[in-house]
Amino acid sequence: RNFFTKRTKELKPAVQSAPGWKLFGKVPPRENLPKDSKIIQQEYEARTGRMYKPPLPSARRKNIEFEPLSTTALILEDRPANLPAKSVEEALRHRQEYDEMVAEAKKREIKEAHKRKKIMRERFKQEENIASAMVIWVNEILPNWEGMRATRRVRELWWQGLPPSVRGKVWSLAVGNELNITPELYEIFLSRAKERWKSFSETSSENDIEGASVADREASLELIKLDISRTFPSLYIFQKGGPYHDLLHSVLGAYTCYRPDVGYVQGMSFIAAVLILNLEEADAFIAFANLLNKPCQLAFFRVDHSMMLKYFAAFEVFFEENLPKLFLHFKSYSLTPDIYLIDWIFTLYSKSLPLDLACRVWDVFCRDGEEFLFRTGLGILRLYEDILLQMDFIHIAQFLTKLPEDITSEKLFSCIAAIQMQNSNKKWAQVFASLMKDNKEGEKNHSPALKS
């Protein structure tokens, strides 16, 4: 009141005729001098016949020491003086409802606390397992790699996932270096790539540089730059200005010069990025080049349709064997493996799965080879079989193109373990070899030389 009184006294006569204001309504312009708040109150009481009485302290509950901090506590408050008081039964019911709400909240809190403790226990257990496994890998397995890599103990330990500290080293040893690439060779191709980038940026002539057409050079340069910005965008480390942007660009550019017959293909950036995260620059390039030289990766990255169809046919053999209901469901919609499997194979699941889970898939892939890539695909289909059986063509394609982000390694690997890579006593390699043999015999039977 003192505040508004003071303001009233300070008002100038020039604003005496200014329109007044009223919340949620309009009033006519003021014609008289501003009135004191006490005078306004007296006039209101005289006009309405009502007297304003401030609430007495005794009207409120005497045992309340604080204002309720949430709406749940309001049910314990007495009603205002101008409303009928609560009956005894109603007050008891409100007290019971409030107690039930408090008890339910406590239950939720206890449940969440137990959940957090469980997660922490699992995390500590996982860290202890990683630490103990790291000691075994460093002290026992890696010094005796050739003798121990195929033993049952090492294979079982391998299945559980490699410790991050030794992951890159094990990948390098498992992938091997059949191409005999050296760090010096990497530097040669890297310098060549830098020269090509410089030459292309300085001139846009139609002349060929080192046997590559302008269109090829432009596609390689622009596509690499474009793909790097799309590689693990949530990590922000491969985007321009990030710590690994130039490194990834160098590895991909050097490979483009090293294998001009393959060139750069979309999806390569994800494979190179995963290797860079686990290996030094030159070692990452060596592993990258050797990995892409494997039959399966070479067939896909060179877009060898004949070989790709053989891999899809082999995949469908084990698909029908392990998941017959889902296989028939896919077949009814003419949903072929190339719709979802190409993206998985091109990026070795690094784009489709969470990064930590993708690295664990890579662990076993380095142990088992290309077979595990297709076994992982069947494991994903098994994990979501019930959901996929309820979907049509469009929704299945969309779902498998962008898998749920909450997929866990325990659930996925339990489904992968349940997949049997055996059909009529034939393993993956035998089924694939028989498909290749049938293809060669079919080509012979259809050749013009034999017909003549």
Automatic annotation (TrEMBL):
<dbReference type="GO" id="GO:0005096">
    <property type="term" value="F:GTPase activator activity"/>
</dbReference>
<dbReference type="InterPro" id="IPR050302">
    <property type="entry name" value="Rab_GAP_TBC_domain"/>
</dbReference>
<feature type="domain" description="Rab-GAP TBC">
    <location>
        <begin position="161"/>
        <end position="369"/>
    </location>
</feature>
<dbReference type="GO" id="GO:0005773">
    <property type="term" value="C:vacuole"/>
</dbReference>
<dbReference type="Pfam" id="PF00566">
    <property type="entry name" value="RabGAP-TBC"/>
</dbReference>
<dbReference type="GO" id="GO:0031410">
    <property type="term" value="C:cytoplasmic vesicle"/>
</dbReference>
<dbReference type="GO" id="GO:0016192">
    <property type="term" value="P:vesicle-mediated transport"/>
</dbReference>
<dbReference type="GO" id="GO:0031267">
    <property type="term" value="F:small GTPase binding"/>
</dbReference>
<protein>
    <submittedName>
        <fullName>TBC1 domain family member 12</fullName>
    </submittedName>
</protein>
<feature type="coiled-coil region">
    <location>
        <begin position="88"/>
        <end position="123"/>
    </location>
</feature>
<dbReference type="InterPro" id="IPR035969">
    <property type="entry name" value="Rab-GAP_TBC_sf"/>
</dbReference>
<dbReference type="InterPro" id="IPR000195">
    <property type="entry name" value="Rab-GAP-TBC_dom"/>
</dbReference>
<keyword id="KW-0175">Coiled coil</keyword>
